[in-house]
Design brief:
The structure is a single chain. The strands form two sheets. Strands 3, 4, 5, 6, 7, 8, 9, 10, 11 and 12 form a ten-stranded antiparallel β-sheet that branches. The chain starts with a strand and ends in a 9-residue tail after the last strand. It is rod-shaped, with a radius of gyration of 48 Å. By secondary structure, the protein is an alpha+beta fold. The chain contains one helix and twelve strands; from the N terminus they run ββαββββββββββ. Helices cover 29% and strands 28% of the residues.
């Protein structure tokens, strides 16, 4: 059978003649199918473009967010570095102050019970003061000096308050009490004209006339007298003249 056709009659405006156009149904279906495919393709392209455009519109905001996160990352890295430096400095200070250090040698020799003046009786053997006056290292903040009129007759050793102060050698307590400059102090006579002075203590365990042994705990460190922070002021004297303590004792 011949293919059926669809005819269109066109009447131009103002003219008497007409024009007719025919198209087979088969060709019409082909054209309509092609048009549908093109329409679907157009819709897909427009949809894809819309999605891409929407994503592209987010790019400036994402770039700003990335820049903000990068700034925060840099700040976090700086804070981590600062924290690491502070922790390292803190650890160095702890080591210098002997916060984690075990007492030098054996356990500190604690003062004996002294119930009467007679208990102090024995005369100590003369001894050169050669033992570090603390059970921990501490940190020397000021040395012996008489330069420029700034007389400082001993060592200032920074140490935590309440640390053990011990005798640098055996001897007899020549003085113990309170002084406007030294605060709570202990003065030990070791014989052979040697004396040691321990200043700025918070608590004393001895009194004048007591006999003490080498490394015996005689006081607790503090910040009494003319002092701005907990430390021990330590002097070595001979014939009343101050000597450099570091010529006698060695810091652990």
């Amino acid at each position: 059978m011949p293919d059926r056709q669809l005819s269109f009659i066109v009447v131009p405006h103002g003219e008497l003649e007409t024009r007719s156009y025919s198209i087979s149904y088969r060709r019409l279906r082909i054209y309509l199918g092609a048009a549908a495919i093109l329409l679907i393709a157009f819709i897909v392209v427009v949809s894809s473009w819309w999605y891409v455009a929407a994503q592209a519109a987010r790019v400036p905001g994402l770039e700003r967010e990335v820049a903000r996160l990068e700034q925060e990352r840099v700040r976090v890295a700086e804070l981590a570095r600062t924290l690491s430096e502070v922790e390292a400095q803190y650890e160095r200070v702890r080591r210098l102050l002997g916060a984690d250090a075990a007492p030098a040698g054996s356990e500190p020799l604690l003062p004996p019970l002294r119930q009467s003046d007679d208990a102090a009786g024995a005369t100590p053997t003369a001894a050169r003061p050669d033992s570090w006056p603390l059970t921990q290292s501490g940190f020397i903040t000021r040395a012996l000096s008489d330069a420029g009129g700034a007389n400082h007759p001993g060592l200032d050793i920074a140490v935590a308050a309440g640390s053990y102060i011990r005798a640098a050698a055996a001897g007899r307590i020549a003085g113990a009490g309170d002084d406007p400059v030294y605060g709570n102090f202990v003065l030990i006579d070791h014989g052979r004209d040697y004396q040691t002075m321990y200043g700025h203590a918070s608590k004393l365990f001895v009194r004048e006339g007591d006999v003490v042994q080498r490394n015996e705990v005689i006081a607790l460190s503090g910040s009494t007298g003319r002092s701005t922070a907990p430390h021990l002021h330590f002097e070595v004297r001979r014939d009343g003249e101050p000597l450099n303590p570091l010529d006698f004792v060695t810091q652990p």
